[in-house]
Amino acid sequence: VDCNKSRKVGKRALHDFQALLNQVEQHSRPFVGKGKVADYIPALAEVNPLQFAIAVVTTDGQIYTAGNCESRFTIQSVSKVMTLTLALQRYEEALWRRVGKEPSGTAFNSLTQLEFEKGIPRNPFINAGAIVTCDALYSRLSAPIHSMLEAFRAQSDNPRVIIDKKVANSEYEHRHRNAAMAHLMKSFGNFDNQVDDVLKAYFHYCAIELNVVELAKAYSYLSNAGYCQFSNQQLLTARQTKQLNSLLFTSGLYDAAGDFAYRVGMPGKSGVSGTIIAVVPGKFTVAVYSPGLDKVGNSVAGIEALAKLSEMIEFNAF
Ligand code: DON
After folding, report:
1. What is the spatial distance between Cα 274 and Cα 14, in angstroms, rounded to a whole number?
2. Position in ligand 1 atom list of the atom nearest CA 77
3. Is 289 among the catalytic positions?
4. Is 300 helix (H, G, I), strand (E, B) or coil?
């Protein structure tokens, strides 16, 4: 397995960081299984809640892990960061006329604000914002699902990454709330393509299946000034990467972004499968997985792990 192989790199630093991750895991264990597994998508409700995994990918290419790091899961809303990244490669200001940069203060799937604010979602990380970003991306890609999958394959350094079709189809069948958002945006003139086509792409992005090591690799560019060392690509400029991290800091954990900033102090993004990525710019990207969610929809043990990690490395953006 990938994660065992990577333990051999870089002895001394590895030893320290490895000990640290072991302590993080030990700290987090009592929280594993706490909270509730997402059940609004039937295929997600079947997941074993007693899982925990964490992986760190440093900017100099070291990889450290603890827990069941071979466990695979769908990345859900963490895909929204890649959607935005691919959109930012193709649009600048034109995208920001269609989606805002402000925290929403509402649930990730809230509809009400979208009507008051005339079909312009608050930010690209709530569902409405991710869906409109998908719509923009959809207009510029000839094979939107394939291009996203290829991006994850290249950046996670695993050409065999797949999409969990069962999850994607189950989400599509239960798409009513997301479809309502897309139609509302269309009624305000903020949607170009067929709603169902874009939703299909959006759900396939959410259903990309990775383990924590692959996820941390895929988002390693966020801690590395936009450069992905696994695909050898400059995905964003250093400036765009700073801007993206700033938005993750204020909106990456929905209406719990303030609490996460307070406890963890890193830009981050969560998903309802129980995964969270977080970034220490210039140092490392970390991915954590544990399916039990708190009321907002964030992994209980995942947040505990990142808070402990932040405390132990004495890092926070300030
Ligand atoms: O749109 C949905 O319902 C999901 N596929 C993605 C939701 C998600 O992960 C939001 N996260 N906390």
Report:
1. 26
2. 9
3. no
4. helix
On whether the CB atoms of residues 106 and 255 are closer than 8 A, the answer is: yes
Minimal-distance CA residue to ligand 1 atom 7: 77
Tell whether ligand 1 has an atom less than 6 A from the beta carbon of residue 76: yes
Ligand 1: atom nearest CA of 293 is: 12
Q: Respond yes or no: is residue 80 known to be catalytic.
A: yes
The CB of 178 under 6 Å from ligand 1? The reply is yes
Compute the Cα dihedral for 197, 75, 222, 143 and give only its sign.
negative
Per run of 10 residues, the mean pLDDT along the chain (length 318 residues) is 39 68 97 94 90 97 96 98 98 96 89 95 97 98 98 98 97 96 98 98 98 98 98 98 98 92 96 97 96 95 97 80
Contact 62, 206 (CB under 8 A): no
DSSP state of 236: S
Prediction ipTM score? 0.93
Complete domains list, the chain, with CATH: 2-312 (3.40.710.10)
Total length of the chain? 318
